[in-house]
Amino acid sequence: MSRHLRSHSKSKDEMPDVGTLNLSGNRSRSGSRSSSRLSSRSNSFGAVWMTAAQFLEYQEQPLANEETVYQPYTRTTTDVAAAANGNEEEMGQDSKTLIFALIKQVKIGMDLSRVVLPTFILEPKSMLEKVSDFLTHSELLVATTRINDPLERMVGVVKWYLSGFYLKPKGVKKPYNPVLGELFRCSWNHPESKSFFIGEQVSHHPPVSAFYASNRKEGLVANGSILFRSKFYGTSVGSILEGSITIHHIRFGEEYEVTFPSAYGKGFLFGTLVMELAGLVTITCKQSGLKAEIDFKQKPSFFGEYNTLQGKISRLSNNQPIFNLSGKWDQRIDLTDANNPKCGQILWAVTPEFINQKLTKLKPNPMFALESDALWSKVTDAIVAGDQQLATDEKANIEQAQRDAAAIRAEKNMGYTPRLFVPNSSGGWTYKWFNNKPWNPQEEDEEYEAAGIIATRKHRA
Fold it and tell me: Where does this protein have compositionally biased stretches of type Low complexity (predicted)?
């Protein structure tokens, strides 16, 4: 959902008044420094990384008051096409020893949000960024804005939704737990528009992430929040996603409420790791009276296959299926007529041509100090380099700074107010600058983002 950034300068009246921040990460303040158990070491910003006092300051400081410039990602990624690279990963002996030691310390049903996990099972990206992966093929969602038939439009939304799962790391990999106040911003360029995505960690205990995406020129915005829970089940670890994201189809006055499957890591007792998606997810549109139900299946203990699903698209009024869905979410999904199973089509398939259609994700430059890529950069570099000890140390630094900062807040009775999202009446979170007004091509030129605020540039007279 994004278009090429214009290079002309902005006048002050075009920019939101949100203050400034030294994006280099260097501190410039007077006053005493709070104590911290962290060592003073240099980070990628050239600053001391990271005391509790710094962490508190970064949480409170506004972002730079200037339009964000986005550029292509250059970071190494561990994402692979699951079908081409398999699902399972063998653990080395050192990894097995760490896992067995961890299993001895946890109980069945235990919440793992406060448990320090070994870095070899970490995916080198924040959970805030992980959610943005659902827009890897946002061109499919944009295409639904040109479909006039409600049923065909629902099929298109389902196709987009399922397109976000096939890229994943091998074995069991868990994204970083975002810290309170962490942000993630990215964008994508489309031929005629731009898409923007913003995520913020609005709560740490419980861990809640809020999200907003916008491409108003194409008639799309999305808003939602998700509570992430991790539990130990004896032979597996589950990551449960509670909450939903609502996609607003502005042109048609429709809202699609979307939920997500849970993820389960298995094989810790046997040394062969595999991640599976499981659970019933729904895509509901009350305005059109349509609903999609998709059941992600776990592989049975004996026989069977990984990564299968079954589903249906039906009317809310009678729950009778109109179309059935079946297949493997990492390879191919088929859509068939519920009344005539011989009449069907391939909804989508993971082919080289399909993979090449995915849009290039653009990241902000420069970044805010608590931006996911900047915050976790040293951990990510160490994981990619295979230095698990360094990754563990760097991750511990960040987590300790957050704990120390939380202790200071509690001692001083200081609350925390998220930058970009506010609580709503349904128990979730809403983007402060939420805008689902129809695009006015006579007045509006393009969307842009500055300091986390997605705004519209007007046509110049």
Answer: 21-40
What is the SS3 assignment for 55? helix
**Contacts for 69 with CB less than 8 Å, ≥ 6 apart:** 5, 364, 365
Terminal-to-terminal C-alpha distance of the chain:
26
Q: What pLDDT, in 10s, does the model give residues 396-411?
A: 899 999 999 999 999 9
Backbone angles phi and psi of 180, in degrees to 5: -60, 125
Domain extent at residue 377: 12-299+355-458
Instruction: For residues 455 and 14, give the distance between their C-alpha atoms in angstroms, rounded to a whole number.
Output: 9
Tokens of 225: 């929040």
The average pLDDT across 365-386 equals 91
Q: How many domains does the chain have?
A: 1
Task: Look up residue 81 and give its two tokens.
Answer: 């096409």
Beta-carbon contacts of residue 359 (< 8 Å; ≥ 6 apart): 136, 137, 138, 139, 188, 189, 190
Peptide bond into 72 cis (omega under 30): no
Q: How far apart are CA 121 and CA 238, in angstroms?
A: 13
SS3 state at 360: coil
Q: Is residue 238 part of a domain?
A: yes
Q: What is the pTM of this model?
A: 0.84
**Rounded CA separation 131/72 (Å):** 18
What tens digit of pLDDT does each residue of 9-61 get? 333 333 333 322 222 233 333 333 333 333 334 444 333 467 888 889 888 88
Task: Check: CB of residue 62 under 8 Å from CB of residue 19.
Answer: yes
∠ CA 119-124-129, rounded to 5°: 135
Q: Are 296 and 279 in contact (CB under 8 A)?
A: yes
**In-domain check, residue 340:** no
Side-chain half-sphere exposure of 147, counting CA atoms within 13 A = 16
pLDDT per residue as tens digits for the range 130-163: 999 989 899 999 999 999 999 999 999 999 999 9
